[in-house]
Prior knowledge:
Layout: E1 12-16, H1 22-33, H2 39-44, E2 58-65, E3 68-83, E4 86-98, H3 107-121, E5 126-129, H4 134-138, E6 143-144, E7 149-153, E8 168-171, H5 178-187, E9 194-196, H6 199-207, E10 211-216, E11 219-231, E12 234-244, H7 250-260, E13 266-271, E14 288-291, E15 296-299, H8 302-308, E16 319-324, E17 333-340, E18 343-348, E19 356-359, H9 360-368, H10 373-378, H11 386-395, E20 401-403
Parallel strand pairs: 4-5, 9-20, 12-13, 16-19
Antiparallel strand pairs: 1-2, 2-3, 3-4, 3-9, 5-15, 6-15, 7-13, 7-14, 8-10, 10-11, 11-12, 16-17, 17-18
Helix pairs in contact: 5-6
The protein binds coenzyme A.
Coenzyme A (COA) is lined by residues 32, 71, 96-98, 103-109, 131-133, 136, 139.
Amino acid sequence: xxxxxxxxCHMYKISEGRPEYKDxxxxxxxxxxxxxxxxxxxxxxxxxxxxxxxxxxxxAYVALHHDKAVANVSFFASTENEIRGRPVKIxxxxxxxxxxxHRRVGLVRRIFQQVFPRMREEGMVLSILDPxxxxxxxxxxxxxxxxxxxxxxxxxxxxxxxEDSGLVSRELTDPKxxxxxxxxxxxxxxxxxxxxxxxxxxxxxxxxxxxxxLEEGSEPVASVRFSVSRKNSNRHLKAxxxxxxxxxxxxxxxxxxxQYAVNSEQVIWYCDNQAPVRLFTKHHDAVTTQExxxxxxxxxxxxxYCRSIAVPETAEKGVHLTVKDxxxxxxxxxxxxxxxxxxxxxxxxxxxxxxxxxxxLGISRVISGLNAPTTLRGLGLIDCSKQTASKxxxxxxxxxxxxxxxx
Length: 407
Ligand SMILES: CC(C)(COP(=O)(O)OP(=O)(O)OC[C@H]1O[C@@H](n2cnc3c(N)ncnc32)[C@H](O)[C@@H]1OP(=O)(O)O)[C@@H](O)C(=O)NCCC(=O)NCCS
């Protein structure tokens, strides 16, 4: 570990968040994430209420230097998530920041040493985050789990749409109507059976305006949210959170986006890979389409995770594997994983001749669903026989992690 002008690493103490550290933390977030914002305005923003608000399942750990908080890791529990229809308690990590003059002395590493056991204590079996830099979080056992798409084009590229869907669109203004959005969002799990969603952020998005619901009679069937930014005096329209209960409701979303985009130079549309945005444009080479998903996941409680999820009913064969998890040592051990009618039995067994040994990043890659275990094996990212990779793939098939959260 490198030295630091403020003293060496034993001059720091890791502590659970307390109200008296909150202003230090907000200042730190300002420098790390919002350096162009006005600090006083930032203090008034409602997300600052979430910091270590444990009544709402929001937690924070800080590193203290002479009683001043100089590094922070926050996380919240979300119980609204599902994997193949079964609820899974997830820890969403946010606010990872260290004061510039205290960086690179291992403070975030030391904070995670307390954060992971706390997540486990709180019953969270999986953790997710949106990384600034993928290799940084791989050090802590997180693997990329999400694929999402970003399309960018001039709105003149929209095809003319004859629109008579009979749907009525209206802008939501009351955060209490978040349930309408969540009802539609839940149906998006057809694009990937692992769904992460969070009521609080939908409520916040409604408060920020420009969130539209499309209804058929009184039934919510689709949604889309907008924001506008300026780049070199050009107006850019961002469209996201475009959910639709079935394909027939996608065209009305396109129609709304094209109407909203009339005065914009560019439309930037974030959506699931399968959302057929390009079908509604005139020249495909005028649409820049990029892979945009970056959410990473890590197992916090391997046994708890295996017991809470459903696996494909078609999986028949068990796997004998050894896990070595240096950050969450309670996960280390040898297990027999056995599929039983769509459920996964997970039993600790003697550490004799496992079919595969995985470290924390390896197990995260296997369960993340982004790449099939046979592909991971082919790429040399996991080390086992073809047969073992196929058995793992039956349990953990490629499967998108559907998440619209960024934090
Ligand atoms: C990213 C950040 C939080 C790291 O905090 P830190 O306290 O300096 O991190 P640590 O000293 O605990 O470093 C942990 C490991 O990551 C490495 N690391 C630290 N900063 C890194 C960076 N910016 N890029 C790549 N690796 C980095 C360290 O070398 C260390 O590796 P090692 O344990 O193998 O030696 C800090 O640089 C920061 O506040 N950045 C601005 C805000 C930000 O981007 N936050 C992340 C939001 S997702």
